[in-house]
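Hey team,

Filing this mostly as a record. A colleague (T.K.) asked me to run one chain through the structure pipeline before their review meeting, and I want the input and output archived in the tracker in case anyone asks later how it was produced. No errors, nothing strange. Just documentation.

Input sequence:
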Amino acid sequence: MNEASTKWLEIARELFSISQSGLTYCKNEYDLHSYHRLQEISAEIIASESGLSLEHARDVFSMQAGYATPKVDVRGAVIRDGEILLVQEKADGKWAMPGGWADIGDTPSEMVEREVWEESGFKVRASKVIAVYDANRVEPMEFFHAYKIVFLCDLLGGEARPNFEILAVDFFDPSKPPPLSLGRTNESVLQEVLAHLKDPSRSTAFD
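Output structure:
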């Protein structure tokens, strides 16, 4: 994605956030019409700059009702014999640390422990927050704003077990990973994990 397209997607996301908040709190019929139109414009920009259909952009927006706030993605860094646990995503065939969108009702640590179990078959305990990132500072850009919380997790047991979303589960040298699913896990995240393994007293990284 070129710099111009990335900038347009940032503008579209901001326009959508404004329209979403307006539709949530506004009572004036005229203003509601304007906010609906603003949302439509943001969907048109997304479709134009991302190559996705206008219908798909509208569908994604329709799932983000209410006041616009960031979504939260949790990822578990699980180490065994110096290698990091990665799962191969069925969505794109590439690899990432196990994790996903946080659910309502769970603490962040409970969420990452369950995601690692469900995606890999390994039982873990979250032991440290390695980093908190603004997930929209790297490609691919999402329609909605998101934060990524990366936990260091202690391996308790289990065995590799793919599921309907995961093609394969394996451990890799974190300095020589397989092709990464960059929206989920990128090289800079793995480098931060490595830095924490070398220096257990290292402070949490954050944007």
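Quick notes for T.K.: The longest strand covers residues 122-134. The chain has five helices and eight strands.
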